[in-house]
Amino acid sequence: MLTLIVGGFLGSGKTTTIINTGKYLVDKGYKVAIIVNEIGEIGIDGDIIKKFGFDTKEITNGCICCSLKMGLRSTVITLFNSYNPDVLIIEPTGIAFPNLIKREIELMDLGEGAEIAPLVTLIDGSRFKHILKEMKNFSTRQIEDAEILAINKIDLMDKIQIPIIEESVQQLNRKAKVIRISANNNDEKFYSFMDMIFPEELLNRSLDLKVQETKPKEMGKTSIAPANGLSFVSKKDMELIRDEQETESSIDASGVATYAAEYNIKGNTDIDRATLIAKEIMKNIKAEVMEHSPEFIGHIKMFLDSNADTVKMNVTAYFEDPQLEVIETGNNDILKLKILSAISNMEKKELVNIVDAFATDVCKRYGIEIEKLGTHHEHNH
């Protein structure tokens, strides 16, 4: 099994890149599984990836020191035993340190057939200077840890700025390979990106080794149990995990307030009304967030179901207009509203109040009642 980790700050285009990467590999005949690590208790990106036909395993509460450390191990081993993909793609939350995830995969010691592709960090070129201004230490570490740095969204950038940002990124990490891409376009740049991540000899070597293995077995410190997908962690590994819990909390290091909420929609609504509601909720949330963090960087992402199809909206910075997309999901039997918010330089309690208030009030004005679904996870840092 070949593992690829695609990191990058909030809103850098990880989900789009991973979907297109999955399609590229499937077209080549490889079996692909995807793990999505979300912020908070509500899974959002995983729902979208599943709509493209990929097997996903979603880990919520996107916190390195908590569920990701323990949940990632069991998730990877379950996929290894039950699905045995050729390629496993992991999308960390945008406020993770992907290098820690790579180290966790290495600790699993999955055997000769397991390899790790070069660690990728996506950089949103259209927001690069703003991210460095708001999140310098955090975003710099993501760049410094990478083996491949992909400057994304070049279609949204001033062409004069592209080589300047490229040189700035290379100065931060002299050892990494740097490439320009636009994840929305499957063009020559995208295929060059794929060749950089997946050189033919790496894919072939990984598959050749996989063919030689007849079944999962006990490997190194991790015991693979095919019957139930359980794994056992050595005392030494537990000590390493606890050390990183104390020192490597990515959420604490980022200084980003995060909140994810999910609501059941009572009754029915058509796509036109759902679009109007989504636009108004997003407009109001963004305006109020800017009252607290005028130059915020982060991600506000929303999915609102109608009777048929789903409205997606997102915004990643104070200077952006919210982007709207209609995702063709067909008939939705259960209608939901999901909102993921992660905002720089803001208190979480303020963010929670803003999201919950506008979600409820806007829906009510359109004659729609919503019910917030409860969550159960507690952080004890």
TrEMBL record:
Pfam families associated with the record: cobW
GO cellular component assignments: cytoplasm
The name this protein goes by in its record: G3E family GTPase
Source domain of life: Archaea
Domain annotation CobW/HypB/UreG nucleotide-binding: ranges: 3-179
